Amino acid sequence: MQSPLVGIIANPVSARDIRRVVANASSLQIADRANIVLRALAALAAAGVTDVVMMPDMSGICSHVMRGIEHSRRCGEARFPRLSFLEMPVSGTVEDTLRFAPPD
To answer: 3-class secondary structure for 19-59?
Structure first.
C-alpha cells in the first residue's frame, strides 16, 4: 500500500480573525506556527506518511520549518517526511488557501 500524500496549509493570514482584533486575543508568532507544523509533520511520519506538500508563504513559516527539518537531519534524526512546496503565486491573502485547495 502506497503512503498517502498529505497537504499542509499554514496560511499566516488565518490568525488575523476578528476575535484577535476586537478582543485583544494573542496571535501566534511565525516561529510558533512553524513549530506547530513541525509537530504535525513528525506525527505524520510516525503514522507512516512519507510525502507532504505544503503551501508556500511570504511570512517565513516555510523557512522556519525547513530550518527545523535541516537541524533534525544534522542531529541524525529522521523524524520528518519528505517535504515539498507547491509552486504557486503567493499573495499573502486568503486567496492563497483557495488556490492551494480549491473547492470541488
So the answer is: HHHHCCCCCCCHHHHHHHHHHHHHHHHHCCCCEEEECCCCC
Listed residue (57, 44, 48, 46) closest to 88, CA to CA: 57
What single-letter DSSP state applies at residue 102? -
Q: Which residues lie across from 52 on neighbouring strands?
A: 6, 83
- Tell me, what amino acid is at 44? L
- 26-62 pLDDT, tens digit each: 667 888 889 999 999 999 999 999 999 999 988 889 9
Is this model's pTM higher than 0.90 or not?
Answer: no
**Closest Cα to residue 33, out of 5, 3, 13?**
13
CA distance 24 to 95: 25
